[in-house]
Amino acid sequence: MPTTLKTIGESAFKDCFNLKELNLPNGIETLKKNFIKNCKKIKNFTVPTTVKNLRNPNDTYFSYVEKTDDGFTVMHKSTEKSYPIEDIKIEIPLFFNYKDINPNLINEQKNDVIAELYNLLNYSISSEQMDEFMRNHNFTFFKKIMKNIPTNRYSGFNKDAFCIGYYNLGGFIPMADYNGKKVDYSQKVAGKLQEYIDREEFRPYENLSYSFETMKADGFKKDFTDFYLGNLRELMSENIFYREFISRVYNQFEEVQATNTSNRGSQRQLKPTIEKFRNYFRGSIFKGVTPETQQIADTVSAYSNSQYTFDKAVDIMNEFEIKKSPNNILSIPLVQELSPFENIDSTAEKIEELQVETAGNLAQVASRQLTYEWLEKNDPTNLILGKLCSCCAHLEGAGYGIMHASIVHPNVQNLVVRDDEDKIIAKSTLFINPNEQYGLLNNFEVRNGFTYEENIETYKTFMQGIADFAKQYNIEHPDKPLKQINVGGGNNDLLGHLLKYNEKAEELFESLDYGNYGNGPHNYRGDSYFSQFIVWKNDELEKNKEEEIEKIQEIEK
How far apart are CA 392 and CA 133, in angstroms? Predict the structure, then answer.
């Protein structure tokens, strides 16, 4: 591998069963989780001393680490020297490769509970996060708690879980600047936890630790910490009945909070509540749920506890079945498969090959590894796409008709964009007019919280999905191919990108009136009636047209 390589990503070589040798270059800094999982033919490899954070290279197949001049040799457990997998942590010394950290701090910690904390976090977080942790620390209250905890093995206190929880809450973060205000989160967290410990009579340390047991070590999330500290007593009560409740709230906080919006078109962000998370986690709560409607119930219950809403969802999916609408406009499902090694340049090349304008302008933008999917119409996710993408196209929103038509109309389908965790972050609804040979996307909707620069990737993924669709559609309909696809400019989250990169349409295509698919109070027509932008043109038709004109001109001459 090249000496310029700094990081090998998670699961990079997973299941490479025939890989026998791995030569890591000096200069590499990070080896992420599962990067050689199931590579059973590798017997050993050397980790250079430049690696700041060895993240589980063993993956149950490597279990011995030996110090060498070059670094650390990691050996396969089938060799003579084979030890329990946990022993790797002992073989790799604490504070490895942290020469720039204050040596007095290191010396102070070596025989302290902080050393154990460091060792735990070193296998849970990235080297960059560890650097930040070591520089921004306040261990006062943490040391106090650790000294007061019962040490006998029957106490039930889970030290590792507590350390992760305390780290995630920001208990080690001293004075920090948030939105122009100085906030000392280490004091806030310490004060609230001490208050809980002093008040509770029955095993307060144990209760705190088991509330963090399944937390991921994802670090400080200000909004979660504010929510936790403001609702600690109620959260702990909930955790008694549902042992993983607080951990699940933390692990899925951004996902739940992103969809915690009002049902109005403006999609105002709402503050999280315990009830919101309770509904999200407890699954279907509706009457009349059958095995056939269980998936619908599970999908809807994350966002609404209204029986009326569930019944409407079932009605829509039944209507789809009765009309026997095709599951896709195309004859095949269209999903983008993205290789973990595919980069922005190859994606830009694909777009250029499909003659989508402006790809060159975007080629310098760092890839977020987004993918598109033309969501099949029988997928219940269509019912709540608006909630996932901060728009009104859902069961309780003004865009009910858009959502309804995307499921039951044979020439309407949703295009979604997924992030590298496979979560939907953006959507657009396409209407095809096969007789007039055009397509019209209602608009582009993107989940709240992304910057203009980040949304360049979203924009480009939409362009890729549209171009791939048009290409396949014209293969399937050679007699009536699409001539052009436009997108509506109203309420469009990517309007800035469209103004910069796309031509405004002089002729407006007629849209499907989505208001006809509304439900009384929600009869919103759509967003393409007053302005549209061209997002795809059939250049082959344009080329043929130009050639025909040239022939006529030659004849006339």
Answer: 40
The encoded tokens of residue 362 equal 């975007």
Beta-bridged to residue 45, according to DSSP, are 74
Q: How far apart (Å, rounded) are the C-alpha atoms in residues 191 and 175?
A: 15
Assess contact for 215 and 250: CB atoms under 8 A: yes
| DSSP strand pairing (424-433 vs 445-446) | antiparallel
What length does the chain have?
Answer: 557
**Where do the domains of the chain lie, and which CATH numbers do they carry?**
7-91 (no CATH), 328-544 (3.40.630)
Tell me how far apart the alpha carbons of residues 218 and 241 are, in angstroms, rounded to a whole number: 25
The model scores a pTM over 0.70: no
> How does pLDDT run across 235-247, given as a tens digit for each residue?
988 887 776 889 8
Cα separation, 432 vs 511, whole angstroms? 9
C-alpha gyration radius of the chain: 28
| Angstrom distance (rounded) from CA 86 to CA 58 | 10
Spatial separation of the C-alpha atoms in residues 392 and 421, rounded to whole Å:
24
**Which of 260, 288, 263 has the alpha carbon at shortest distance from 274?**
260
The predicted-structure confidence for 205-219, as pLDDT tens digits, reads as follows: 888 888 888 888 888
Rounded Cα gap, residues 473 and 190, in angstroms: 60
